Amino acid sequence: MVSFNLLALVSFAYVAVLFGVAFWADKQARKGKSSWLRSPLIYTLSLSIYCTAWTFYGAVGYAARSGLEYLTIYLGPTLVLVGWWWILRKLVHVGRAQRVTSIADLISSRYGKSNLLGVIVTLMAVIGTTPYIALQLQSVTLSFSVFAADQQAGWARPDLNITAFWIAAGLALFTILFGTRSLDVNERHSGVVTAIAIEAVVKLVALLAVGIFVVWGIAGGPAEIAEAIETSQMATWKMDGARWVSITFLSAAAFLTLPRMFQVLVVENANERQLATASWAFPLYLLLMSLFVLPIAVMGLKTMPEGANPDLFVLTLPLSQNREGLAMLSFLGGFSSATSMVIVAAIALSTMVSNHIVMPLWLWARRANPGASQSGDLRRFVLISRRLAIGGILLLGYAYYRFSGGGAALAAIGLISFTGVAQVLPALLGGLFWRGATRTGAAAGLISGFVLWAYTLYLPSFGADGIISSKMLADGPWGWGWLRPQALFGLGGIDPVVHALFWSMIANTTAFFAFSLGSFPTPLERLQSAQFVHALPQNTPSRSSLIGSGGAEDLLVLSQRIMGPVQAQTLFENHAKRQGKDGYLPDPTPDFIERLERELAGLVGAATAHAMIGPVVGGVAVSVDDLMAVADEAQQVLEYSTRLEAQSEELSRTARQLSSANDKLTQLSVQKDAFLSQISHELRTPMTSIRAFSEILAEREQALTPDERHKYATIIQDETIRLTRLLDDLLDLSVLENGQVSLDFQPVYLHDVIDRAEVACMSFLGAQKLVIHREKGNEAISLYTDTGRLAQVFINLVSNAAKYNRAAAPRLDIRISLREGRVLVDLIDNGDVIPVEKRALIFEKFSRLSDQAAAGSAGLGLAICREIMGKLGGRVDYLPGQGGAAFRVTLPLSDPKIRDNS
Amino acid sequence: MGNQVLLVEDEPNIIEAVGFILARDGWAVATHANGETAMDEIRRVCPDVLVLDVMLPGRSGFEVLKDLRADADLHALPVLMLTARGQDKDRDLAEKLGATRFMTKPFSNADLLDAVRKIATS
């Protein structure tokens, strides 16, 4: 006896296991131990979201009604995969190279980062996918009800609507938890993909188990099945050529253009090796999935009572034989098919909605006030918008389920949905293979195809008098017979799907070509089309001239808000290094900007990234160089010019290095000159007071009051101490610079060193109101270093923050992070930012930003810090883009080898 | 000849010392510690002698001197320049800009008094 509670319990337990797997896989991926997560096997299995509940349950029903036609659904994807080398390889390559986040993003990016196209494809995808989600909800609730029908006793028949609602809510929760955990540059979801791979195995095993049971358990073996087929109505079934071709084409197109398929096929793809394996392994999977469909259908028709729903034979056949365990497995298989489809579809759609609808609206709302967009963490905003989108999409699916009454209309929705998303195909293929395809053409094709699809197939699918009146269906609008939705231009009497596919594809493709030929692409479109169409041999020239006046620092601020500080700083640091520069701010060369824009596109979509970077770099996004590069005539000289470009890049890098070295030498020479003058000043100033007061005391001692005598003696004493400290600092620096310093390395915890510095600073800063915010939780890092020297560095930085921070409520944040075996300690205050031109100088001797001899400083502190950090195997740098003065101390992590040797 | 001295200097202890020495000698001493606002202060105080440091916050003593010599009312004001850097080029610059006297820190109290008295009467 399978009670409702048991069934619910098994479902919950299954979902809990999936949760566990997804959580574990996410954690592995985060730790970087994800090599097997990227194995071709997992990739192939994740493609199985193509097989939804519609195929799991529906294929048997399909076979029972239409014989072998169900094979077309598997035939399309098989053709695409076997021929992967021609289309898929390029699609995946371009998708990865351009950091494409969704099919809408691909279309938008290809046609000049047009957000209009992004919105069109997003809306089409939402409209086309919602009924499909409803279909999955229906299949799960139906399979629940099968158990209910079977066990009249003990089952309080559950309300199907409520069941569907809770399933939708649970799926939303799972998707939000694992689909939007973080904003990842690669937009990959290891947890979800792994869970889906498991579901793929479950549904395959379930279907195979039911099939084996039917062939050898119910029937007496293959021979008996063959005989049953001979005698059943299927033997008389006739093949409809038009439908075969149409549906095979549809399923092949949908395999490429369904948002969820694009997500697993392109976005989640990690390397081309996965594709090569999937090209034979996935057709094999499909073969296994379809192997027992016919036997189950035949035996269902033969043994089940008249009028039994053939869509549910996979469940009802085992139940009728009292095989409850098998039925349960079969239930889980169907459950897996439905849930994995909904989860991936929701992730894909939410990315599209957030990148192409929410973010552009947000940018538009902020256009009047660009200053306001400089603050805050955008990642949170993006994640929240995606979470809301997921909730909204599942709610839409549920609403559609309720609205359509969960009836037979839903069963036909699979092919209707396929026809809808297939409208993207001309723009997609044209974009990949035809330089002449333009944005206008793509928009015209998409819109006309979509409108015809809606008119001839989608709207009529709500049934007579659903949305289109039965009168209009029969006679056409205003009685114009040639506009009858299901018999356009008198082409009646054929299958509605074939009819709709025929007209919509003709209109779509014609409009796409006609408008493409009749319109002229914008420069950005030309650039993008070159990158997409000529993607495989890498021939985009590297460019080196500076464009725009975009401040690298503004770009860093922007990127930090979208990628997070760690990713952004690493990207900037690496690129600066490649340009031969130190620090975190590379020159904003077109190369760098292109790279950065692509990285950002991986998070918020190409159009949005382009719109965000545009204002920062000054709007000159396409240079004359770019136009030259995309001009077809230039193709001949491209290779030669690429070589020249490489040389000139090399030269300009060397020139940059030379010029930067020269600048530094000139500055150093000036500084060396100033050094003596500075030393003289720093020594003579205290001496002036000492000499004057000592003469006063010596000559006029009798005339002075005891108070005056005491005061003047104290001044002499203070100035002597100041002199001594100056000499100490100078000697310290000289020792450090000459490498004569002896360091006392010992194991210590970072928090102890910072504690020590904080206590020391508080004691001599006294009444200073600087508030220090620390992350004590992160400071428990063991170091192997010279504790005293390291503390000296922190004391210097903290006291600088106290001395020079002129904010009303001075505050210093000390943040710790780990990166590549190094500890990063960031000291960020809320005072004035140090001007760019001064940043290289502050670490030099006697460089004070203000002329004031504030608190008796001689301007040696940071120079000493830099020397010390060099000796400790780390460094100290100015950290740009933090909104205040910020310094980063980089330290090597404790290395046990060093400890053993000393 | 009046006895008003204005001392423009930013080191508090040097202000204290020079102020004390001049006051003992019978001078009325006013002090100011900022280069930026020094010209306004000179116009306000109208000193008979100006003692001007070179290294000042905001504006250097040289710039103040340049303005002073270009000013119709103040171009004849006797100026004693003080510097702690003691390089020849500073002395040359001071002479070029029209400083009446130039002294390098540290100095003896007697020399300072002597210098102030001399330029006040010249």
List the helices and strands and how they pair.
The complex is a heterodimer of chains A (902) and B (122).
Chain A: H1 4-31, H2 40-46, H3 53-56, H4 58-66, H5 71-82, H6 88-97, H7 103-110, H8 115-150, H9 160-179, H10 190-218, H11 222-231, H12 241-257, H13 259-267, H14 272-291, H15 293-303, H16 313-320, H17 324-365, H18 378-403, H19 408-411, H20 413-421, H21 425-433, H22 439-458, H23 470-475, H24 496-518, H25 523-533, H26 552-563, H27 565-578, H28 590-604, H29 606-617, H30 624-630, H31 635-700, H32 706-738, E1 745-749, H33 750-765, E2 771-774, E3 782-786, H34 787-804, E4 811-819, E5 822-829, H35 861-871, E6 875-878, E7 886-892, H36 896-901
Parallel strand pairs in A: 2-4
Antiparallel strand pairs in A: 1-3, 4-5, 5-7, 6-7
Helix pairs in contact in A: 1-10, 2-10, 2-14, 4-15, 5-12, 5-14, 7-8, 8-9, 8-17, 8-18, 8-20, 8-22, 9-17, 9-18, 10-14, 10-15, 10-17, 11-15, 12-13, 12-20, 12-24, 13-17, 15-16, 16-17, 17-18, 17-29, 20-22, 22-24, 25-30, 26-27, 28-29, 31-32, 32-35, 33-34, 34-35
Chain B: E1 4-8, H1 12-24, E2 28-32, H2 38-45, E3 49-53, H3 61-70, E4 79-83, H4 88-97, E5 101-104, H5 109-121
Parallel strand pairs in B: 1-2, 1-3, 3-4, 4-5
Major β-sheet strand ordering of chain A:
2-4-5-7-6
- Alpha carbon gap, first and last residue of chain B: 11 Å
Question: How are helices and strands ordered from N to C of chain B?
Answer: EHEHEHEHEH
The major sheet of chain A is characterized as: 5 strands, mixed
Compute the number of strand runs of chain A.
Answer: 7
- CATH topology (level 3) name of the largest domain in chain A: Hydantoin permease
The CATH class of the largest domain in chain A is identified as Mainly Alpha
Query: What strand order characterises the main sheet of chain B?
Result: 2-1-3-4-5
CATH architecture verdict of chain B: 3-Layer(aba) Sandwich
